[in-house]
């Protein structure tokens, strides 16, 4: 099986890649995590989805492709240049809410409906506000993170953050985890109670 033969790449994906190269954005999500997110979202009709770390919108392009007409996604980034670019690609889709905000503050003040899937791709919701963000996952819902495999460009000390996060998630009795050395190192967690 050739897992890189991904055939359902989103229509606007190549335009987003070009934009990413144009502005020198170095953190876009890869095809694997995108494909996985779309597949998981397809399992959740009328879903309420959250992404922390919109970035240039690459993972968002996959997630939007997985949404049915009754689903919505909220995606948050604290960089106004990036949210403006994402709005250029997805702003006309009424299912997509793109917010420019500090995700730590947003998580702490959010009082709305909990989420069927959270993709935490920024510091908040992974290395800070972890309890708060896990609280926002519905029972049966997914908490997804990537970038868990050691990278040469990690700052000194980041491996300790990653190890602590993995240990913490493993101790949670209300989540079932699968750790995957695929893509950039994934954790797929489902809330069980
Ligand atoms: C790994 S990138 C996200 C990549 C994105 N998923 C994509 O496919 O383009 C992480 C993003 O988190 C954003 N970020 C960092 N700290 C944040 C914070 N405190 N609140 C909101 N966003 C933050 C950064 O601006 C960056 O765009």
Helix content: 25-40%
**Main beta sheet:** 7 strands, mixed
Q: Compute the separation of the termini in Å.
A: 35 Å
Bound molecules: S-adenosylmethionine
Largest beta sheet: strand ordering: 3-2-1-4-5-7-6
Counting DSSP H or I runs of 4 or more residues, the number of helices is: 7
Determine the mean pLDDT.
97
Structural class: alpha/beta
The number of distinct structural domains comes to 1
What is the β-strand count?
7
Low-confidence stretches: none
The CATH homologous superfamily: Vaccinia Virus protein VP39
- Integer-rounded radius of gyration: 16 Å
CATH topology: Rossmann fold
Q: Estimate the global geometry from the Cα principal axes.
A: globular
């Amino acid at each position: 099986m050739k897992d890189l033969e991904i055939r359902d790449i989103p229509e606007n994906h190549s335009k987003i890649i070009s934009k990413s190269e144009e502005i020198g954005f170095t953190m876009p999500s890869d095809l694997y995590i995108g494909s996985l997110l779309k597949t998981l979202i397809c399992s959740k009709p009328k879903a309420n989805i959250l992404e922390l770390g919109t970035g240039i919108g690459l993972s968002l392009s996959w997630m939007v492709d997985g949404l049915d007409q009754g689903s919505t996604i909220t995606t948050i980034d604290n960089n106004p240049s990036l949210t403006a670019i994402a709005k250029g690609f997805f702003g006309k889709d009424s299912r997509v809410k793109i917010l420019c905000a500090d995700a730590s503050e947003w998580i702490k003040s959010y009082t709305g409906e909990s989420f069927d899937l959270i993709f935490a791709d920024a510091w908040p919701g992974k290395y800070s506000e972890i309890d708060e963000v896990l609280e926002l996952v519905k029972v049966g819902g997914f908490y997804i993170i990537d970038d868990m495999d050691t990278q040469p460009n990690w700052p000194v000390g980041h491996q300790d953050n990653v190890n602590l996060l993995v240990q913490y998630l493993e101790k949670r009795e209300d989540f079932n985890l699968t750790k995957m050395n695929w893509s950039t190192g994934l954790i797929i967690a489902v809330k069980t109670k």
